[in-house]
From TrEMBL:
Family to which this protein belongs: Belongs to the LysR transcriptional regulatory family.
UniProt cross-references to PROSITE patterns, sorted A to Z: HTH_LYSR (PS50931)
GO molecular function: DNA-binding transcription factor activity; sequence-specific DNA binding
GO biological process: lysine biosynthetic process via diaminopimelate; positive regulation of gene expression
Domain HTH lysR-type: 5-62
Origin species: Advenella kashmirensis W13003
Keywords of the record: DNA-binding, Transcription, Transcription regulation
Name this polypeptide is given: LysR family transcriptional regulator
InterPro entries assigned to the protein according to its UniProt record, in alphabetical order: LysR_HTH_N, LysR_subst-bd, WH-like_DNA-bd_sf, WH_DNA-bd_sf
Annotated Gene3D superfamilies: 3.40.190.290, Winged helix-like DNA-binding domain superfamily/Winged helix DNA-binding domain
Length: 301
């Protein structure tokens, strides 16, 4: 009959997989080789599965062992996030204000808001994380951030968000591109252009593809990247053109030709909080600075 794995058994199994031998695993865990061997045998006995085989002096995963290792890795990542949350909460009483933002907002709107905020709260220390949308949502659920800035409102009752700025996507190209002679760039103008795009599951990219479809156009991406900043850099080098949010485009304003894009693709910025965490006074003041920065800064054309 199978039994539940103990935490020491799981740790030993993980260490052996990562190092390849029980000797190296023992060094990693600061224990002895016989102890690791015993824990591995206990783990195989508890599960009733052959998890490892000896291949010329190194321990290799069986099919069942690989599946178990993948499950363990996923759960250890969760433990790591919990440990991060504990560390962040431990620091929060020492004047640390924790902000998460998508890369585009982290390089454009966020520094402007931080500059205004620091004038009134010079003693506050920031912890800033630039992350993808899913990572931001996970962090908010764990209480890692006092506020988050994103371009999409997370789904779920555990989040509370407010729109702080509304803009529209822009077309970016090199300074000497023919688009520099235009006031606007339309979807039809993108025909025969080398397009630098975000992955197909990005919200802005999906709207762009819908604009192509409505125009009866089929346009394949020639260069794909996960970062809007990469699109801007490549466009500035004349490698192609891109349709991006106006926040990141503004960072490269001196190196890019930035034009309004038609049809309009709306880009909204949200300030998001975890609903289970009451907004602190600092968070409320920071939100006000975000709103003021949106009014002052020029994002886009």
């Amino acid at each position: 009959m199978s039994r539940a794995l103990s935490f020491p058994q799981i740790e030993a199994f993980k260490a052996v997989v990562l190092t390849g031998t029980t000797v190296a695993a023992a060094r990693m865990l600061h224990t002895t080789q016989p102890t690791v061997s015993r824990l591995i045998n206990q783990a195989q006995s508890a599960t009733g599965l052959k998890l490892l085989v000896n291949d010329r002096g190194r321990l290799q995963l069986t099919r069942e062992g690989r599946h178990l290792f993948e499950i363990i890795q996923a759960n250890f990542q969760g433990i790591g996030r919990i440990e991060q949350a504990v560390a962040a909460l431990r620091e929060s009483g020492a004047g640390v204000f924790r902000v998460a933002a998508t890369p585009s907002l982290g390089q454009s709107l966020l520094p402007a808001a931080m500059e205004r905020f620091a004038q009134h709260y010079p003693q506050v220390r920031f912890n800033v994380q630039t992350l993808g949308r899913r990572q931001i949502e996970d962090g908010l659920r764990l209480g890692l951030y006092d506020i988050a800035l994103t371009n999409s409102l997370p789904d779920g009752a555990e989040f509370e968000g407010t729109a702080v700025h509304k803009a529209q996507a822009v077309c970016v190209s090199s300074l000497n591109h023919p688009f520099a002679k235009r006031d606007d760039v339309t979807v039809a103008d993108l025909k025969d252009q080398v397009l630098i795009s975000l992955p197909g599951d990005d919200a802005l990219e999906m709207e762009l593809q819908e604009a192509f479809r409505k125009k009866g156009m089929v346009h394949s991406t020639k260069i794909e990247t996960i970062y809007t900043s990469t699109i801007c850099i490549y466009a500035s080098r004349g490698l192609g053109v891109g349709i991006v949010n106006p926040y990141m485009a503004s960072v490269f304003r001196d190196r890019l030709c930035i034009r309004n894009f038609r049809p309009k693709i709306r880009v909204t910025t949200y300030a998001v909080f975890a609903r289970f965490m009451p907004q602190s006074e600092l968070a409320q003041h920071f939100l006000q600075n975000v709103v003021e920065s949106c009014e002052v800064e020029q994002f886009g054309v």
